[in-house]
């Protein structure tokens, strides 16, 4: 039987007498409140295809369950009896996001209202998979203790890994993560942590983080470039993640053949070039924190990958037509800017009028975007 995290959700989070967490109408209202914290109850009716009576009844049920909290009315808003403001109640539930990269594992704890409770990293070094997960478990327990988090409010885990999806909860990760590859991660992690685990590609959870906490608050159609040891990405259309028929939409490296592959903008090749020029860069995380565009080898590498990079940008623009292309993952800001400055759009104007171009934007999400997106993914999957 296929692994399903939904089947492992604790009964205290499900609707009375049902296996689901929320109804479709509850999900609609929770998503609206997530996007508009502080919206008044009376304002909601204008945004949904529900009667005021239905809206009030559903809100009352969500308040009774502890998912939504009532706040003070907006002063001077509307006529009649003031309507309370609404927010998701962070005390109801929290999740842990775990993001496995080739050099570090990012950890992020977040409550259902989107408040980050803790962020940290575990350095992989030469640890095996189970050793690394044991360290993650210790970090998680330490964060729970330091934040006095109720274990019964722990909803689940979002788990992200670099690599492409091959079926079930199996991913084909880069060589440094060979031990994590081609195994059913969902059941293994659920047994280890004792919680339901939603497994996803790390570039996709980075795109989700960007959608919910970054430019996605203003732009609903964008492509996310995830610069890591390898190179991938994610596609957000009308605010939703596109996963494709096999779960690999956004695997941008797939457009390059064997000869071109080393000339794609994967950071493993930049590190190799830097080391060849005498610059000691122990990891991608170190490079991101200490990057200097004047390092010998940087300009040379950027020039080398520019043709493949430009072909990708134009392919994304032609096929997906995004409003923006976001530079994310573990890319240093200065390196992203160097690539943006070398961007060349191939489209030819017709009658002097070109296609509307995608904005090229460097993500301003600090920390590990993949872990951030993984932490909110269970809530997004089940609540909003």
Automatic annotation (TrEMBL):
PANTHER family attached here?
A: N-ACETYLMANNOSAMINE KINASE (PTHR18964:SF169), ROK (REPRESSOR, ORF, KINASE) FAMILY (PTHR18964)
Give the matching CDD domains.
ASKHA_ATPase_ROK
One of its Pfam families is HTH_24
One Gene Ontology MF term:
N-acylmannosamine kinase activity
GO BP annotations listed: N-acetylneuraminate catabolic process
Entry protein name:
ROK family transcriptional regulator
